Every structure is written in structure tokens, then in C-alpha cells.
Amino acid sequence: MTGSAELLRHWQALNCTHLLGLPHIHYRTADSTNARALELAELGAPAGTLVTAAEQTAGRGRQGREWQAPAGKALLCSLILERPPQLLPLLAGIAIAEVVESVAEPTESVLLKWPNDVILGGGKVAGSLIQGRPQEAWTVLGIGVNVAFSPRELPAEIGRHAASLELERASIEVVQRRLLERLGHWLGQSTTNVLAAFRQRDTLLDQDVRWAGGSGVASGIDDSGALTVKLSGGEEVSLQSGEVHLEG
Ligand code: BTN
Question: Full-prediction pTM beyond 0.85?
């Protein structure tokens, strides 16, 4: 039996399920909290299970990239969710943005770059990665928040685009607690409210953007959560997923 399976058996014996953040499994070092949470979900861990790590040796980012953070200085967490809403990527970003605002009290609003990059002062302070088995009605939501380091501590090509809260290490726990609270709130909100909150923070709106398939001017988020882009001929296209870059 693997370590994860054993932990799960103990939890099932306690018969507590469906609380966001419980059970909570913390690793000093993990390959990736998403990988650990996916394994637990496959073994039948309950929705709400939270996996955190002080350090990841193979942190996963979107688009097959790596996610890096100095050991003990970031919130690295993954949650198992059941029947997640279609707008999960957007609502995760909103929840993180609210937490960042509450702990860092920045002078400017925290913005969201579709679908789920959280932008503080022009740099990416947090990101999320959703993986899972929609056909089995569960998903893993992985979130990384740069809490207690300077972007200069990251490799230059990542640090250049990154931001950090630059708080004490002790703030990681505060960020984690508040994040669970805000996620709980936004998971209970209507599609209309999620879309409205995202649109208020949409950093791509009216910006020149490019993606693998073309370029144009971002014209907002449609009701399905897709990014709409106006092409030079006036035609509008919807991007359902993927990566968009600001021109220039
Ligand atoms: C992105 O590229 O923006 C997504 C980053 C997601 C990183 C987090 S860190 C905790 C969790 N475990 C992982 O391996 N990835 C996510």
C-alpha cells in the first residue's frame, strides 16, 4: 500500500467528507501537489481534500511548463473538487486575487489575465492548473502563490515576468486559510456573478493580443468564459483555452 493509500484509509475510517481543505495532507517535499492530489483522487479521496507542500521538485505549470518557487517561500497547494463548475479557472483567479488584495493591500487592483493568471503590479504573482477526470466528475485545482521571496530568486527568464507578495514565511498559512474561504465563497456563486467579477479585473480587455493561431484586440469574456478577440477584418473569434500574449 502506498503512503497516500494509507492516509486515505485512515481518513475514510473517520468518515468525514466534503469540507474544503479536509483532509489536509502536507509534504515537506513533493514532486507536485497536483500529482499527489490526482493520485489521491484516483484512490477515492473525498472532495475537499487539500494537498500542500513546502517544496516541489517537479511543479507543473500550464501548457506543459514547470512551476518553480524557492523552498518554503510559496503557497503550493492542490484541492480535489467534485463536479466543478465550468467557470472554475475564472473563479479560482478571482478568489486568489481577493486574497492577494487582502494580505498585500496593494495600491492598484489585482488583475486577471485570462484564463487564470493573477497579476500584481504587472507581474504574475499566482497561477492555477486544473487537471482531472471530468468524465468521473472530479478535478484537481492546483494553485501556486508567490508569498515570501523576491522574483530575483527565480531563474531570470521566469523572474522577469513574476511578482511576489514579499511577505514573511508565516504569511503562507494566512494566504492558504483565506484562499480556502474565498474559494468556498466563489464556488457557491452564480455564473453571472463570477463573470461580472472576472470582467472587473480583466487585464486583456482592449489590448492587442496574439496566440498560436493569430492576433487581434481582446474584446472581453463571453458568457461561457471564453476570451473573445476582434480580428483586423472586424470578425470576432472565441478562444476556449490556451495561452494568449500581450503584443509588444
Ligand atoms: C500556471 O502555469 O500558471 C499554473 C501554475 C500552477 C502551479 C501550482 S503549484 C501547486 C500545484 N502543483 C503543481 O504542480 N502545480 C500547481
Answer: yes
Which residue's CA lies nearest to atom 7 of ligand 1? Answer: 144
The pLDDT tens digits for 59-104 are: 999 999 999 999 999 999 999 999 999 999 999 999 999 999 999 9
Q: Interhelix angle for 171-187 vs 88-104, to 10°?
A: 140
To test ligand 1's pocket by mutation, which of 143, 158, 176 has the most ligand atoms within 8 angstroms of CB? 143
Rounded to whole angstroms, the Cα distance separating 45 from 37 reads 9
Say if ligand 1 is within 6 A of residue 93 CB: no
Residue 67 CB less than 6 A away from ligand 1: yes
**Torsion sign across C-alpha atoms 95, 96, 100, 101:** negative
DSSP H stretches of helix in the chain: 3-14, 33-42, 88-104, 156-159, 171-187, 191-200
The average pLDDT across 1-6 equals 64
